[in-house]
């Protein structure tokens, strides 16, 4: 996923993110507010991913 797409369309895609990564709470998503790096960090915390793994997962995530 492109960082610009994430930040620009946050309200539209956060539901899809929550569906894909169900361990992320609504509070987590409120903190993230479309910030790619914060979302990557939340994935690392919730799923035990390394930074590279989290970034890769986000890269594979399809928005449209």
Describe, in plain words, how this protein is organized in 3D.
There is one protein chain. This protein has helices at residues 3-8, 10-20, 26-32, 36-47, 51-60. The protein is built from 5 helices and no strands. It has a single domain (3-60), classed as Protein Yjbj, Chain: A. The mean pLDDT is 90. 16% of the residues are buried. α3 packs antiparallel against α4 and α4 (36-47) crosses α5 (51-60). The protein has 64 residues and is mostly helical.
CA-based shape? globular
What is the H/E order? HHHHH
Give me the count of strands. 0
Look up the CATH topology: Protein Yjbj, Chain: A
Q: Which architecture does the CATH hierarchy give at level 2?
A: Orthogonal Bundle
Biggest sheet statistics: none
Number of domains: 1
Provide the gyration radius in Å: 10 Å
Low-confidence stretches are none
**Number of helical runs?**
5
Helix/strand/pairing category = mainly alpha
Supply the CATH class.
Mainly Alpha
**Chain-averaged pLDDT:** 90
Quote the distance from N terminus to C terminus.
Answer: 10 Å
Strand content: under 5%
CATH superfamily: YjbJ
Q: What is the multimeric organization of the chains shown?
A: single chain
Helix percentage: over 70%
Strand and helix layout:
Layout: H1 3-8, H2 10-20, H3 26-32, H4 36-47, H5 51-60
Brief descriptors of the model:
64 residues
Summarize the structure in short:
This protein has 64 residues and is mainly alpha-helical. It is 72% helix and 0% strand. It has helices spanning 3-8, 10-20, 26-32, 36-47, 51-60.
